[in-house]
């Protein structure tokens, strides 16, 4: 055992010694020279900025998850003690018992939205998995809501701050309050099923917060979704006629039918000038805007959809409304003036 410890110490020392030149070299900002060219720390940070943002966001998420788990554990202990039951029983009473079974309509909706991924499997065959998925989703939402209740009851706070990323709105389609204290920039893909689910949470955010929130939509069509880019081009043409959000909703409601003919039919359904729409769709005058959305998304560390930036705070994936609410409420609280004595 002692031999192993000594060997480990030698190894650790060798690692620390090996890493020392990096630290020393980085102090003056110079990392390398090639001929008369100096490569600085700033040069490299600019080159790998998207990756650094992604790593920092991942680090924060890991730390945040650990902190949230620790806080929730302590809150459950306090409440369980107050009720004179075990934390496990509290979980059953407040989470499991309060999650309703999904309706047939909800099950059918998930099935329809994921038909392509299910590769022809019947509803009867995959129904148990869909039920488990929906119950887990509702349980997660209920758990977050209950934890928020307990935080208020036991005055739980934390001082951990999320890293922020400056993401421009770039004049892209927006809704909500023009001068809202909270801005949500959304990067999304019309063919992404997770993006469609994310839209439900975003709509609930808009309905709940009204003019306190501004939502900006930016395109991020993934390369393996062949109809995502044409759909984004079509939505831009609808935006030119003042019907972006109506068309946006139409696309997400019909993710399995995004062929060019369908995209044109949706324009007609919404009462757009079809001649102007068809000409716009053919010439694609807004391609540069979509390219900019993609470039800005990469620069902000986006590597999948949907991706949201709430006042610069990253929220990745199809998160439940409660997760949006948690961040939005924190941002709203931060914008309130300090109380006067």
Protein model, in words:
By secondary structure, this protein is α+β, with helices and mostly antiparallel strands. The chain is globular and about 70 Å long.
Helix/strand layout:
Layout: H1 2-26, E1 30-34, E2 37-40, H2 41-47, H3 49-83, H4 87-94, H5 104-113, H6 115-118, H7 123-154, E3 174-176, E4 182-188, H8 193-209, E5 213-219, H9 228-240, H10 244-253, H11 260-269, H12 274-283, H13 287-299, E6 307-310, E7 313-316, H14 321-335
Parallel strand pairs: 4-5
Antiparallel strand pairs: 1-2, 3-5, 4-6, 6-7
Helix pairs in contact: 3-4, 3-7, 5-7, 7-14, 9-10, 9-11
Return the string of H and E elements.
Answer: HEEHHHHHHEEHEHHHHHEEH
The helix-and-strand class reads alpha+beta
Give the helix tally. 14
Using the CA coordinates, give the radius of gyration: 25 Å
What does the largest sheet look like? 5 strands, mixed
Low-confidence stretches: 1-24
Mean pLDDT, nearest integer? 88
Count the E strands. 7
Shape type: globular
Largest sheet strand order: 3-5-4-6-7
Beta percentage is 5-15%
> Residue share in helices?
55-70%
Distance between the termini: 63 Å
Keywords, please?
14 helices; alpha+beta; 341 residues; two-stranded antiparallel ribbon; disordered N terminus
Summarize the structure.
By secondary structure, this protein is an alpha+beta fold.
């Amino acid at each position: 055992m002692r031999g192993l410890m000594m060997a480990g110490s030698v190894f650790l020392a060798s690692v620390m010694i090996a890493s020392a030149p990096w630290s020393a070299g980085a102090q003056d900002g110079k990392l390398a020279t090639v001929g008369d060219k100096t490569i600085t720390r700033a040069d490299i940070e600019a080159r790998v900025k998207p990756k650094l943002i992604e790593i920092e966001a991942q680090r924060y998420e890991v730390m945040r998850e650990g902190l949230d788990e620790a806080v929730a554990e302590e809150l459950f202990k306090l409440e369980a003690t107050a009720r004179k039951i075990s934390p496990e029983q509290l979980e059953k009473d407040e989470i499991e018992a309060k999650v309703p079974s999904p309706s047939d309509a909800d099950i059918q909706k998930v099935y329809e939205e994921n038909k392509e991924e299910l590769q022809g499997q019947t509803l009867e065959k995959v129904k148990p998995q869909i039920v488990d998925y929906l119950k887990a989703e509702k349980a997660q939402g209920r758990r977050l809501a209950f934890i928020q209740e307990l935080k208020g009851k036991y005055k739980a706070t934390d001082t951990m701050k999320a890293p922020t990323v400056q993401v421009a709105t770039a004049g892209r389609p927006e809704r909500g309050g023009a001068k809202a204290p909270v801005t949500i920039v959304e990067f999304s893909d019309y063919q992404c099923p997770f993006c469609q689910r994310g839209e439900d949470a975003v709509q609930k955010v808009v309905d709940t917060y009204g003019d306190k929130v501004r939502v900006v939509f930016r395109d991020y069509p993934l390369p393996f979704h062949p109809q995502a880019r044409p759909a984004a081009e079509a939505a831009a043409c609808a935006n030119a006629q003042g019907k972006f959000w109506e068309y946006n909703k139409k696309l997400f409601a019909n993710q399995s039918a995004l062929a060019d003919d369908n995209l044109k039919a949706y324009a007609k359904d919404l009462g757009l000038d079809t001649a102007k729409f068809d000409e716009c769709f053919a010439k694609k005058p807004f391609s540069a805007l979509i390219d900019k959305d993609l470039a800005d998304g990469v620069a902000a560390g986006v590597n999948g959809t949907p991706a949201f930036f709430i006042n610069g705070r990253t929220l990745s994936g199809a998160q439940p409304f409660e997760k949006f609410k948690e961040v939005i409420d924190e941002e709203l609280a931060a914008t309130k003036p300090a109380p006067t004595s």
